Amino acid sequence: MNVSYILLLLALLPSTSPFHLFPPPRPVLNLHSSQKKFDCVIVGSGLGGLTAAATLQRLYGRDCVVLEQHEDAIGGVAHSFTLKNSAGPFQFDAGPSLLTGLSRPSYNPLRQIFDLLSLPMPPMIEYDGWKVQSKGEMKDLGLEGEGEGWVEFEVKTGGGGFGEEIERVFGREAMKLFTEFTDLILEKNGLYESSCGVPPFVLRGDKYAAITLTRSLPSLLKIGPKGGKILTSSFDKFYDSFISKSDRNPLAETFLRNYFNYLSFALSGYTMERTQTAPVAYMIGDLHLPGSSVNFPEKGTALGGIIDVLVSGIKEKGGTISNSENVKSLILNSSNKCIGVRSNDKDIFARDGVVLNVGIWSLPGILRETLRIGGEFDEGFLRERIEHAEGKHVKNARKMFERAFLTICFRFNTGNE
Ligand SMILES: Cc1cc2nc3c(=O)[nH]c(=O)nc-3n(C[C@H](O)[C@H](O)[C@H](O)COP(=O)(O)OP(=O)(O)OC[C@H]3O[C@@H](n4cnc5c(N)ncnc54)[C@H](O)[C@@H]3O)c2cc1C
């Protein structure tokens, strides 16, 4: 499972800017008592924000507040909601549904955080696969025949039965390619084992990568420069080098490519050209090593599930979670350190720092508003971060999402699907 973090560390560089006037003073949020200052302010109550708050509160003893814009929902993408009809109330879960490595100690980052913070993982239902249905041109689905068609198959986890299923639907050659490729990744000292030693969240794409990577130095040394390069490069490079060496039938390879594009998309929202090898290799192990399975919390992800445990874990140690907090901008001092945020029309201050985990949709707006209001900070410093937050990577993600959304709307409007 991939839980992505967007941590904005604004306390690193000294100011070089000319003097700017502070914005006019604003009322201060009164969460407990007047003039309350927290050690850490965390913006966004998604899995990222809550795990950051739980870690800071429980492991580092920091007094944290989590600010969430929604009136009542907590959990961000991973929230539950209830609808009622004459048959009674029904609880629905939004967001993540394909979860692995949660039911027992594993390399799953979320499971590791729960174990580290002594938080109880809620009871999980374990299941051994799921059904995939897809429609398209037969050749694009990896099937013999002309024109459009449907394909239906079961992804079977835990090392048993998936090969047979691939052979049944896509033929013997596709099964052989799949087995060879996954063996290559899962074999001892292969990419799976290496990827476990280098957690996905240390593989960042910016200039601070060297700082986070040093923590995984022992594992990196074991992998060697070549292994490290493979793990941090896009997965298509590794895939293509395997395919170019194999004696393949293009139709048989189509299934393999579709399957790994699908896994890549589940991890990063992109196909394999834009997904790093490490998380894909890790996911292949999580799904296809003997004994592995897929999990789902018995009571759902949010209510009574993972989100509830995180919320209780934060509150138990004195942390605060506050809804209806629309954070519009940041407060930066003359050293470019983020010392607080402006939520609605109030200022909330942080002694140690601010974690902004609001997602790519909100982040640029908050930074731009900070720049518009101005302050003592260095504008160039902030502009650089805005550029990063609005970079090509983010713009592409937005375009992909908007295209997918338009396609869904279009289909609803025409009434065809
Ligand atoms: C439909 C879907 C299915 C998915 N399926 C899976 C899956 O099967 N397996 C898996 O591992 N992962 C899955 N993911 C990915 C996973 O759910 C996300 O990576 C994860 O939940 C993101 O958590 P987050 O905390 O980073 O962000 P979010 O959950 O987006 O949280 C951001 C929070 O910030 C709040 N916020 C935004 N702006 C402001 C503001 N100005 N002021 C205050 N609050 C603000 C938002 O309201 C939100 O609550 C899925 C994602 C989606 C969308």
TrEMBL record:
Keywords: Signal. This is Uncharacterized protein. It comes from the Eukaryota. The keyword Signal applies. The keyword Signal applies. InterPro entries: CrtISO-like (IPR045892), FAD/NAD-bd_sf (IPR036188). The lineage of its organism: Eukaryota, Sar, Stramenopiles, Ochrophyta, Bolidophyceae. It holds the Pfam family NAD_binding_8. Residues 1-18 form the signal peptide. GO terms for biological process: carotenoid metabolic process.
